[in-house]
Design a protein that fits this description.
Elements lengths: L1 H15 L3 H62 L5 H9 L5 H16 L4 E8 L4 E6 L8 E4 L7 H8 L4 E5 L18 E8 L6 E9 L1 H8 L11 E3 L5 E4 L2 H7 L5 E3 L16 E4 L5 E8 L6 E7 H52 L14 H60 L3 H17 L5 E3 H19 L3 E6 L8 E3 L2 H14 L6 E10 L2 E8 L6 H12 L11 H14 L4 E7 L2 E9 L12
Parallel strand pairs: 14-16
Antiparallel strand pairs: 1-2, 1-6, 2-3, 4-5, 5-6, 7-8, 7-12, 9-10, 10-11, 11-12, 13-15, 16-17, 17-19, 18-19
Helix pairs in contact: 2-8, 3-4, 8-9, 9-10, 10-11, 11-12
Subcellular location: Cell membrane
Protein name: Sensor histidine kinase
Organism: Paenibacillus brevis
Length: about 625
């Protein structure tokens, strides 16, 4: 029977692996199963580890903040217990209490002032050690009178001895434990805890009295409520001697005292220090449950705030995520196997057609097109093949058209060269006629215009700065003839900078912009300044005017215009600046360009040309 089963399995495997599609199905299904299972297990482990780390981090931060608030509150109570500037008066009243009526009144008034200054105290007791007498004021309904009484045996109580032995002359008393000794027989509601302070003589350091503050439980509970407590979690507040001053479940705290069931957390599961007697602790209950005990110890008084968290709570998000991961993985696995089967059966059919078309294309048949069916990878390959064929034909056509455009451009360039020369010769003839008529001003203007025209039709794109300055001087002479005294020009150009090379007609473009947007729009005198300087890494040419200025919104529009491609540019008003900015970047690289800014007295346009290695220019014909 076993041999028959083995033969059946071998036959089934041979049948499945007999076709290429079945091999692909088997291969990819195996890979998908391994990937899904591996990812699910790995992600589950990582989620559990991350859940522990996140729980520790968030709980430690929360405990640290709340513990700080608790210590600040206890420090405030300690500050309240110190008589400060009235220390001598209080000691004098304590010493003379049994013989001086005024001293009794002083002590009663002192207790009232302390009691009414706070709303978080159940009562205040002042115990006079030598007299074995106490003054008290407690919160019992509306009757808050100061009362006196005598009680022996207080000096033998633990809190009293602890306060006497303390270097700081104080002690804290917890009432969390059942049947806790309150201290005063007449006091029935001490609250959650008490703070006792010994008042000593300044000269002899002999104890004269003990003042006790009984704190309401609502105060501590209100501070601790900032710590979120989920079901099964607990919260414990301990003094440096591990005496509980707050415990939401005292029986749980009693179980935790068994340190034999403690184990420090593995450092790999926490960012804090572990395994050295500090950091989070793993506690195993006798029932087998595990708790993560996260604690924080105060920096001042070393009070400890501890929060035991069940591992079941910590791992609950990880379990939910793991279950969702298994569900998603199973759905993904089923869909993937179905998809793999469909793709595998569809792969082999179009492969031959595609290879045949590719063979035709390699033999020179550039109109070969593959048939596209479906949306699988082979169909996508067919589409890319068709795009390649289309792009190849397009490039062939573009190359042919470029040859035609190049021939037309040469013809138009020859035509454009003939027409300006004719116009230049005509201007020379008119200038000669003006000289014969002794109209020298017109002759100078025509001569300047002729030289300007000759400069413009020159074949160079890069010129020396002195050539550009000569051209701009002739251009401004023509403009001054138009505007008269309304146009003033100031040139600051060092002689050593005149040998630099700049784009031809660049200064004219910037100056023409100032004339168009400043001189033409104002009736008064407009001053145009042209300057050049070297800065770190750039040669800077600035043209500024004292015209009406330009709003920031328009500057943003111009900068956006500089970034647009030529085919996207519809604005013609500032096409000269756009053209110059493009020329600068083509000649010198991306570090070159124009910068426009509005000043307090007009507009400033700066042309930036990189120096040395900052420029991307490879070769320039001069």
């Amino acid at each position: 029977m076993i041999d028959g089963l083995k033969r059946a399995l071998r036959a089934g495997y041979a049948r499945l692996s007999g076709r290429l599609a079945n091999k692909l199905i088997l291969f990819f299904s195996t890979i998908i199963i391994l990937v899904v299972v591996s990812l699910t297990l790995i992600s589950g482990h990582m989620l559990r580890k991350e859940s522990v780390a996140n729980s520790i981090e968030s709980t430690e931060n929360n405990l640290k903040l709340v513990n700080q608030n608790l210590e600040d509150y206890l420090a405030d109570i300690e500050q309240l217990s110190l008589p400060q500037i009235r220390y001598d008066e209080l000691l004098q009243a304590i010493v003379n209490e049994d013989t001086d009526y005024a001293s009794k009144m002083y002590l009663e008034q002192y207790l009232r002032s302390l009691f009414y200054s706070r709303s978080d105290l159940n009562g205040i007791f002042l115990y006079l050690i030598e007299q074995e007498k106490y003054y008290s004021i407690v919160r019992e309904g509306s009757d808050t009178k100061v009362r006196t009484g005598f009680q022996s045996g207080i000096a033998a109580q633990p809190w009293f001895e602890q306060a006497m032995d303390s270097p700081k002359s104080r002690s804290f008393q917890s009432f969390v434990q059942p049947n806790s000794q309150i201290g005063y027989m007449t006091f029935k509601d001490p609250g959650l805890m008490a703070y006792h302070r010994v008042i000593r003589s300044i000269a002899s350091r002999e104890p004269r009295a003990v003042i006790s503050f009984y704190i309401q439980p609502e105060v501590i509970e209100e501070i601790l409520q900032d710590i979120p407590i989920e079901q099964g979690e607990h919260l414990i507040f301990l003094d440096p001697d591990n005496t509980p001053f707050y415990a939401d479940d005292l029986s749980f705290f009693e179980q935790m005292k068994d340190t034999s069931q403690w184990d420090y957390l593995d450092p790999s599961e926490s960012d804090g220090d572990s395994g050295n007697g500090s950091g989070p602790i793993i506690w195993r209950t006798p029932e087998g449950s595990q708790y993560l005990i996260v604690s924080n110890t105060g920096e001042k008084e070393k009070w400890e705030l501890a929060k035991p968290i069940p591992y079941s709570n910590i791992y609950e998000p990880a379990r939910q995520a793991r279950n969702v991961g298994f569900l998603i993985g199973a759905v993904f696995l089923i869909l993937s196997i179905i998809l793999v089967a469909w793709i595998s059966n569809a792969i082999t059919r179009p492969l031959y057609r595609l290879s045949r078309q590719m063979r035709k294309f390699s033999e020179g048949t550039f109109d070969a097109v593959a048939l596209v069916r479906g949306q699988d990878e082979i169909a996508d390959l067919n589409r890319h093949f068709n795009k390649m064929v289309f792009r190849t034909n397009e490039l062939i056509n573009e190359r042919y058209k470029m040859k035609l455009v190049e021939k037309n451009a040469i013809l138009k360039a020859l035509e454009a060269e003939i027409n300006p020369h004719f116009l230049y010769n005509a201007l020379q003839a008119i200038s000669t006629k003006a000289l014969r008529s002794k109209d020298f001003e017109v002759a100078d203007m025509i001569g300047a215009l002729a030289l300007t025209l000759r400069y413009c039709i020159g074949g160079k794109d890069i010129v020396f700065a002195r050539e550009e300055l000569q051209h701009i001087d002739r251009y401004l002479a023509l403009q001054k003839a138009r505007f008269g005294d309304r146009l003033e020009v100031e040139l600051e150009w060092d002689e050593s900078l005149k040998s630099l090379q700049i784009p031809k007609l660049s200064l004219q473009t910037l100056t023409e912009n100032s004339i168009k947007h400043a001189v033409e729009k104002m009736s008064g005198t407009v001053k145009i300044g042209i300057s050049a300087a070297f800065t770190e890494g750039h040669f800077v040419i600035t043209v500024e005017d004292n015209g009406p200025g330009i709003p920031q919104e328009r500057i943003d529009q111009l900068e956006a215009l500089f970034q647009k491609d030529w085919e996207d540019t519809q604005e013609s008003e500032n096409i000269g600046l756009k053209n110059l900015n493009t020329r600068l970047k083509l000649l010198y690289g991306e570090h070159a360009g124009l910068k426009i800014c509005s000043t307090d007295h007009g507009v400033s346009i700066t042309m930036m040309i990189p120096r040395g290695e900052d420029s991307d220019v490879q070769s320039i014909d001069y």
